[in-house]
Amino acid sequence: MNFEFSDELIQLREQARRFLADRCPPSVPRRILDTDEPYAADLWRAIAEMGWTGAAIPEEYGGVGLGRLAVCVLAEEIGRAVAPVPFSSSVYLATEAIMLFGSEQQKQTWLPKLASGEIIGTFALAERPGASDPAKLTSSVAAGRLAGTKLAVPDGDIADIAVVAVNGGDSPWLHLVDLKGAGVTRETVATFDPTRSHARIAFSGAQAEPLPGSKGADTVRTLLDYAAVPMAFEQVGGVQAALDMANAYAKERYAFGRPIGSFQGIKHKLADMYIQVELARSNAYYGAWAVHTSAAELPIAASVARIAACEAGWFVTKENIQTHGGMGFTWQMDCHLYYRRAKLLRLALGGAREWKHRLVNELRVRNTTDLAAA
Amino acid sequence: MNFEFSDELIQLREQARRFLADRCPPSVPRRILDTDEPYAADLWRAIAEMGWTGAAIPEEYGGVGLGRLAVCVLAEEIGRAVAPVPFSSSVYLATEAIMLFGSEQQKQTWLPKLASGEIIGTFALAERPGASDPAKLTSSVAAGRLAGTKLAVPDGDIADIAVVAVNGGDSPWLHLVDLKGAGVTRETVATFDPTRSHARIAFSGAQAEPLPGSKGADTVRTLLDYAAVPMAFEQVGGVQAALDMANAYAKERYAFGRPIGSFQGIKHKLADMYIQVELARSNAYYGAWAVHTSAAELPIAASVARIAACEAGWFVTKENIQTHGGMGFTWQMDCHLYYRRAKLLRLALGGAREWKHRLVNELRVRNTTDLAAA
Amino acid sequence: MDFEDTPEEAAFRAEARAFLDANAERRKPGAVEGYRRGQDAPGAMERAKDFQRRKYEAGFVGIHWPVEWGGRGGTPIQHVIYNQEEAKYDVLTAIFGIGIYLAQPTICTWGTPEQRDRFVKPAMRADEVWCQLFSEPGGGSDLAALRTRAEKDGDEWVINGQKIWNSGAHYSDFGILVARSNPDVPKHEGLTFFILDMKTPGIEIRPIRQVSGSSHFNEVFFTNVRIPDSRRVGPVGAGWKVALTTLMNERHGMRDAPGPDVEELFRLAQSIELEDGPAIDNAAVQEKLAEFYTRSQGLKYTKFRGITALSRGQTPGPESSIIKVVAANKLQDILSYGLDMIGMAGPTMGESMPVAGIFEEALLYSPALRLAGGTDEIMKNIIAERVLGLPQDPRADKGLPFRDIPTGARK
Amino acid sequence: MDFEDTPEEAAFRAEARAFLDANAERRKPGAVEGYRRGQDAPGAMERAKDFQRRKYEAGFVGIHWPVEWGGRGGTPIQHVIYNQEEAKYDVLTAIFGIGIYLAQPTICTWGTPEQRDRFVKPAMRADEVWCQLFSEPGGGSDLAALRTRAEKDGDEWVINGQKIWNSGAHYSDFGILVARSNPDVPKHEGLTFFILDMKTPGIEIRPIRQVSGSSHFNEVFFTNVRIPDSRRVGPVGAGWKVALTTLMNERHGMRDAPGPDVEELFRLAQSIELEDGPAIDNAAVQEKLAEFYTRSQGLKYTKFRGITALSRGQTPGPESSIIKVVAANKLQDILSYGLDMIGMAGPTMGESMPVAGIFEEALLYSPALRLAGGTDEIMKNIIAERVLGLPQDPRADKGLPFRDIPTGARK
Prior knowledge:
The complex is a heterotetramer, with two copies of chain A (374 residues) and two copies of chain C (411 residues). With 374 residues, chain A is α+β, with helices and mostly antiparallel strands. Chain A is built from eleven helices and nine strands. In chain A, strands 1, 2, 3, 4, 5, 6 and 7 form a seven-stranded mixed beta sheet that branches. Chain C is built from eleven helices and ten strands. Chain C has a four-stranded mixed beta sheet. A four-stranded antiparallel beta sheet of chain C has the order 2-3-7-6, with no helix packed on it. In chain C, a hairpin with an 8-residue loop joins β6 and β7.
């Protein structure tokens, strides 16, 4: 058994961590939070130059060809740094959709541009509040023209292209749309995490190019499964950083003549946070194995990784604020950066609730003896 | 507003508490636990002599006529003492069923005997594991003869009569059956709380007398609502005793040179237990008001009282064991008396899960503006 | 056991309603914005002061205070009844609460007759607005660890230091201040309590930006701020005991956590579609609703038990100590569950979101409710020690002169 | 990243399987009784000893111990692989664990060569069975507060006192014992570690009845029990350090909580009808199943990470410290939820209940799993202090001579 990343990827992680510690200290997401800049374009360019945007893209399409495990490793660091860049939208979703379902020609056209960071991609699914069930989509494509409205598309106002989910019937359910083309109206929407911009996008006759492999509503779910795993790593990176922050503060802050971290009220809270982080990390590793091998268990592995990451995300980041006391609630402390981002990522691919539903459905179609958990 | 019991009832409570402290110390439930005695018959006789079994029965039917609030007050003390007597079966259920749905003649026949403790009554509902939905009952009555099997009837082996729920169609759903008559086969079943005996009862042509007012499956639910409130008080009495026990132990037991109750790990646990007890108590009070006034809100009030009592019951009694450490898990300490009983009472009228379902259904049929919680 | 007023209570309630109907607007039913802070709206302060003056003239300020303090000499239950009624109207009175319910009882209890005569009535009429200057950046839950210095200079005290979590310094006329007059004795013994004129030179007020982006609190800096000794409340060195009077009143006034509650979650569940139909039909959503409803009702009836005690002339039992910690955590749980239901569209802020966007808004302010007025951890200590009688944590600072108490790297 | 054995690991696994196939019965699939204690069945001890002897002869005892201790000189991962395989068979080896995995490593580390030669091999072969005599009634989590006295008398030690939570004293040949040889020094400094022949006069064994009604533990009383000094392990007064070797090995062997897990809850949900149809179709049940499954998988893959570390020749990370506390609480949550699903019929005990009655049975033994081998609270302290590096609680007993440490009313 080898349930760990290769030495090469561990090196990549260390390199990425150093790079982001240098290029994306908290002042960078704070800059995006405090200004009208929708994302850190300079950081994004640097990331693309490092080859991260093409990490999983095969070399023949202009990528680095390190595979999906490399994306997981990078995602964790992106999460740790609360980096204000469209990495998840462009890499886990748009790039992945084209790799999974695109034609050879589409791959040749788009993947090199996504790999180089020349263009930013995103994924547009949700059309209403509530569960984003692909089967209930109303957006549609007729004669290559897309009609429909998508809510709160992450990075929707900065992306160049979007993979748009539509109710495809017997035709493909995912379509590529040039967001700068005609028939596309974008409106930036305010969210509780302004370090990642979002837009409402209305399509009225926009030109839409089907991804030929995306036939059936299940392909939308498959894309979400593939995206959920690196997203879980991004979430794990964030909660690890929040835990580290709480831990450092608990040692440094004194009350009643001793460090607050010597009170069991705080100690046991931090132990609970640690438990959540470790469980989320272990489940994310299983997800990594599943995306890496495109295993049949992917729907289960992705759901489990996602659920654990979502639970940890909320618990750890809110208790990080709590550990900091009143200071934790100030703009000046970084606690809220992790708190906002954790809730954003928890909702990004549909809430934990939706994934629990998916998980049990998947488990039911299998023999229950596969369930043995120990 | 007067959200407190009357001085008369507070006196009754104090009297009951003294009486049970004297007559039902932990050695009494332990005797039932350790021997083949199915219940404390001597205690039961004494309780009947005190008039508790007839507390809510009007004087015209041989009762004391103190009303349902008196039963709530007594129930709390029964719970505190973990008394091994069929009080809930006979008083909250059998007596209540006859008071609610019996004919004048039935009341005159049965209530005096129940009031005096001459006979013990119980209620038989569940026919299978799972939710005990009255609409899905298969027991039936034809030409005054009952056929069907009931599982785990509380006090089913010591009761003289049972109110039996059947699928009544357009006829009454509740029937009185003499358990000593023909066509009744009783088999004592082992449960995880041997301080309250249970029996499986098979009816094959047993003579069954309808309670004429019990037409429709809803009458079964109504009976459960009325029973859930004193049951919640019984549960509150139990958790209060468990909390008191944990609290005393936390002060007395030393570790690392100081009382374990000075460690926040234990302090905050006890505070959490206290919170659960208080919330359960407050909701039980609302239930008491509702049964007392037979308020339209009873289904809601009973559900809320029941859910809060069930949550507190499990949490407080298991954390009482935890507070006691290894000693808490020994037969010799009394922790397990509360733990067993709490789980028994949690299942007795259907688990918390069923009551949550009932609560939301009731809330939905009302105007949601009634929901205002503050 | 009933929910009815006694005849006397009913008469008082009618009187309160009559006053309110004549002087304020009833809140719209189902409005969710009731909890949103209104004092920043234009003209809000003037309207609030105007209403407060009329409320005072009508005898509804200090209802349960003795007549010699300027109160009505009524009962605590009358105070509760008035507040129950006032809550149904669109009025802004909370900003005067520090002056009326924290500062004045402290001054009346510990101050001189001259101080009482000078300050109580103007506070009640909102002629003068008050703020509180207790918390410090290095103190947090350990309030008595405050470091702001008060040094005697003739008939005056010279104040240097910094306070935090101040509400309203920028519009207040006076503040109640605790400062350290002697760092050489144990920490609770070296404090002194003052009334500070907020127009005194040397006071600098800086707003603190909160996670929500708004600034409802200030840091307040003191540089050689001078206070006459006549404005000292209670003996020199007795400041902690004096402050406890304020803190008791503060805790007594502890309230629910404002924001989305079960009703709003119910409305959300009715308006949203999940994968298997309307959210309100989903068994998992229903269970959550039932659990939240049960917790909300538990709080409601716990408060009723406290009110009943008041109504009977008793002190409310310790049960009220649980309200803040339960309410604040419930709010976080509810808003998080609500956002999860809204799903991918959930991050969007604004009135166009389901239930007017209050779930998203609450995400950003709710953490404060588990911190302000005593953290969860402090509240649980209070329950454990004062209600359950458990022993205190061993005190690392016990008996040490304040200047020798360990503070870690920071000073 | 893969789940495959290396070729060397695969070869070892095949060897282990071949041995097990030849010497034991495979457990039936879906059997739930695997965790039930079997040592009370007639003839069970003899069968267990027989298997253990064959296991020893085949080289599968002490796989990762050095050859000079009598081990195989293998790797920790081989030890894990063997145990993974053995778990699929119906064998009873846990009762020898105290002797093999707790007593012998301690003796090998701290004892004399004579002690090692005398005791290690018979323990590995199950010729001699061992028990542990550490815990005391007044000690609990504060293990080092033990009061059993060891007084030197010539070449012997005289033991008086009482131990608790002993497993197997009635069938054991030897015990490892820690006793207080000096009450006048701080508590960790006055302990001494012994090997006790359980046939020595003066030992009285009384079974403790547990909540479940069964008695898997004893109290053991010592009245002038004499131990030759040659059976002392490590220096006089070094007993705490010696015992830590035992405790480290104990913690290292920490396992999952046996009993109903997600699979059993799934089977239950498939077999039960709720008000709206099969439980497995109910959205609330589904969410719970998903949450439990996620927790179970989290534990499983946390263990895999530990095994991977072993496989790479590293020490498993601190992540393994979470397993016990998560598993024990998960068991309580699952059994409680399962019982609630079974509903009114839930209290009934026995094989006729859904899923062979394991939910009801687990109700009665599960509290022990949050206590034995370190309470939840102690485990969280360990995580906080040893993993996260947080400071210790202030020690009220620090530096005090043992006899002066406060113990409350009790002595």
